[in-house]
């Protein structure tokens, strides 16, 4: 296995666009997995109980946002949904890159 040279046409898609490199995909996949793991941990019963008992009742939170616990819980849920939406978009983007790269590689193998 070797690194592709700058002018190497061996890693181009049939349409002429350069395929996404494996290194970038690996970092993006690792980042997405870390985000999903963090989201999963933050939604555990222990973390939600800690959020309700400590974070939502902090003096700074009450002073800056609200004392209404149900509003603050809805706000935390909306933030979790936004994080899940961003992670889903990243997974879809990875799926698209994987699909493009897979068919690019299978096209080159079948053409040989």
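^ Assign residues to that structure.
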């Amino acid at each position: 296995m070797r690194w592709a040279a700058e002018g190497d046409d061996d890693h181009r898609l049939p349409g002429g666009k350069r395929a996404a490199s494996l290194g970038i995909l690996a970092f993006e996949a690792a980042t997405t997995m870390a985000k999903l793991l963090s989201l999963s941990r933050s939604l555990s019963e222990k973390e939600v109980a800690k959020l309700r008992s400590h974070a939502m009742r902090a003096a700074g939170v009450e002073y800056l946002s609200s004392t209404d616990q149900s509003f603050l819980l809805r706000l935390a849920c909306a933030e979790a949904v936004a994080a899940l939406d961003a992670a889903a978009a990243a997974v879809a983007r990875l799926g698209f890159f994987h699909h493009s790269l897979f068919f690019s590689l299978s096209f080159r193998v079948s053409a040989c």
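The chain has a mean pLDDT of 76.
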